[in-house]
Amino acid sequence: MRGQKFYWAVLLALFFMAFFASCRLYNLERKLAPEYAEFLSKVRYIITAEERKIFLELPDSEKDAFIEEFWRRRDPDPETEENEFKIEYFNRIEKANELFLGEGRPGWLTDRGRIYILFGPPTDRITYPMGAPGSGGRGCQEIWYYGNFPVVFLDETCTGQYVLVTLSLEHLHELNLAQSRMQKTFPKEKEFLDFRFGMKKDVVTEERVEGVFLLEIPYETIWFSSEGDELRTVLDVSLELRNAAGQLLWEYKASYPLRLTEEELKAKRKKSHRLEIPFTLTQGLESLRQEKGRLEVRLHNQTGGEKVQKLFDFKI
Predict the structure, then answer these.
(1) Could you tell me whether strands 124-128 and 140-146 are parallel, antiparallel, or unpaired per DSSP bridges?
(2) What is the pTM of this model?
(3) Integer angstrom CA distances of residue 113 from 68, 117, 135, 149
(4) What is the pLDDT of residues 106-153, one digit of tens each?
């Protein structure tokens, strides 16, 4: 009995020590000067618990030296003038702010922003609108793949508020390992492979529907390989249109070689590569009139192997 009392007394003492230490650090953080609070906020994904504690306890006269040392320790190539790690980290924050708008907070503070900063762009990304096969009936989903490792985001109301879903302890462990690696260094990553989609119907009759599907792929998301004086890649595109019952009504597959000089790519960096895919529908039109169908669009860049898949509603 005496041993048990001692055991619980020790646990209680440790709990209160941790609690008061946490409160002390919280109070120190509240008193930070704006420039130091900004630093601590921006490095939240890569600063270690010990570094954070040291920074908060330092007098202001030593905080600038700490910040300089913080980035120096993470510089992958100290012999160069630039700190590649620091540049890439803030580039990812900026890109996350561009990619993940509309959640009521800066994109880099969202769950998708955090994963983007820690892991970089996924090798494959699949989006599921509400009710789509594969969504499990749980609202809208995005699944990012890093190799065979999936990261799932769920938006239960399909309003753009995506939340990270932890599928298993193994996946959580992988996430923690990624954050640990990021606290040291990471290589420069490529952008998301992505595209904007549009559709134009030219002919709509009882017997057929004709039109054009439009894909606009930002050049800044396309990776090229260098061959001589040219930059080259091949974009594989596939489309499948199914009715509500899952019956395949139309499909299309094609590969599009893309060649540019470096100067041409620089001039088009902020523009998009446009693909126009004509379609003619003659079967299953009645089912599409009764209920909207699903158009699945897949894009694959042969350079680097990046893939992206999206689902769209199709109505006549």
Answers:
(1) antiparallel
(2) 0.54
(3) 25, 6, 21, 17
(4) 999 999 999 999 888 888 788 887 765 555 567 888 888 887 778 899
Q: Phi/psi class of residue 273: alpha, beta or left (left: φ > 0; alpha: ψ in -120 to 50)? A: beta
Separation between Cα atoms, residue 258 and residue 235, nearest integer Å = 7
d(CA 255, CA 122): 22
Among 98, 97, 103, 76, residue whose Cα is nearest residue 87? 76
Which of these three, 154, 182, 210, is where a domain ends?
A: 182
Q: How many CB atoms lie within 10 A of CB 243?
A: 20
**Terminal CA-CA length for the chain:** 78
What's the structural domain count of the chain?
Answer: 3
Task: Look up the domain containing 45 and give its range.
Answer: 2-72
Report helix, strand or coil for 21.
helix
Geometric angle at alpha carbon 56, from 184 and 86, rounded to 5°:
30
